[in-house]
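Fill-in record for Type I restriction and modification enzyme subunit R-like protein.
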Amino acid sequence: MINLNLPPYPYKVKQVDGKSFIFDIIRKKYVSLTPEEWVRQHFIHLLITHYHYPKALFAIETGLRYNKMARRSDILILARDGSPYLLVECKAPDIKISDATFAQISRYNFTIQPKFLAVTNGQQHFCFQALQGQINYLDDFPAYT
């Protein structure tokens, strides 16, 4: 897998019938190792290790509906009261963060309405708040308090 602009961590990868799987510490199982999953697992570890988000508040690939269409969010972190706190959209490293990426997370924001939103492809990372139609970009990800 490609090197990312994220801190390394001691990941666990295994091969089954010629296919690679990576251990997800949130779902507590091995999942198919795709380029997007590589980014998601690194980002999960960044949020836990550097920003102190508790594992118990993570939801991975949660279902949601937008315009009657089923969608899945990549990473959702809840606040202690159960409200959506941080929604993260992960892309494979070779996918550029574009207007389409921001439009996708904006649609998810419409349904989930978290306090913070983030997009990453493992190389570039953006975190922001959407408040009353205004986008406020942050210099860093919010630490969990």
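KEY FINDING: The beta strands are 13-16, 19-24, 29-32, 58-66, 69-78, 84-90, 116-120, 125-131, 134-137.
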